[in-house]
């Protein structure tokens, strides 16, 4: 039985490829796989300056097959080649931004929210307003009231001993660290909400710009690279 199975496999291996036409379509009796060009492993850096330094150094110029920078997204840029003989492209370098993690759409306790807001956002007027409000909220003092379906009212300390109802600012214009440090972080609108948790009030930020900030960040990345590489024969696309 084993001998018969081995003979069957040998006979199959010995079969030559045949091209057959059926119903006006051409078929092969064997699958053909394209032998691709061997590519080097791409370098990985975390800053746009690291990418431009590599390009300007001319370190691998002898082996480059064209230079094209592809801005994949607000936190990723690739340096790639022209089409090779096998119709593939080689990636020379991948640049990925290192950004802090802020959980948009999820609730934070007040202390964690204050820390995350100060460490993950560019300081601006709306950040200061939120910090001032959140830092003065009284425990178990979150109360929602109707005002075009948007606003909230909270009891917050407005003086040394005075507690007043304060309207939560909405929407707020914030600039989280979401892209490369070399560019100005794009601002976008967020909905700032408060609710009463099991023991303490909780805070959350919800994105409200439909992702437009990504396009703005990619635009700024392109402007930065175009300026840094203006004397180089490099194409930048996004």
What is the gist of this entry?
With 238 residues, the protein is α+β, with helices and mostly antiparallel strands.
Summarize the structure in words:
The protein is an alpha+beta fold and 238 residues long. It has 2 domains: 43-98 and 217-237, no CATH class; 108-207, no CATH class. Helix content is 26%, strand content 29%. The protein has helices spanning 2-14, 48-57, 110-120, 125-134, 212-228, and strands at residues 19-22, 25-28, 43-45, 68-73, 76-80, 91-96, 108-109, 137-143, 153-157, 163-167, 172-174, 188-196, 201-207, 235-237. It has a 5-stranded mixed beta sheet with strand order 3-6-5-4-14. β9 (153-157) and β10 (163-167) form a beta hairpin. The chain is elongated and about 80 Å long.
User: Strand percentage, roughly?
Assistant: 25-35%
Instruction: List low-pLDDT spans.
Output: 155-164
What is the arithmetic mean of pLDDT? 83
In whole angstroms, how far apart are the ends?
61 Å
Report the structural category.
alpha+beta
- Helix content range of the residues, please? 25-40%
Shape: elongated
**Total domain modules:** 2
Q: Report Rg.
A: 29 Å
Strand order of the largest sheet: 3-6-5-4-14
What is the tally of beta strands?
14
Discrete helix count: 5
Taking the sheet with the most strands, its summary is:
5 strands, mixed
SSE string, helices as H and strands as E:
HEEEHEEEEHHEEEEEEHE
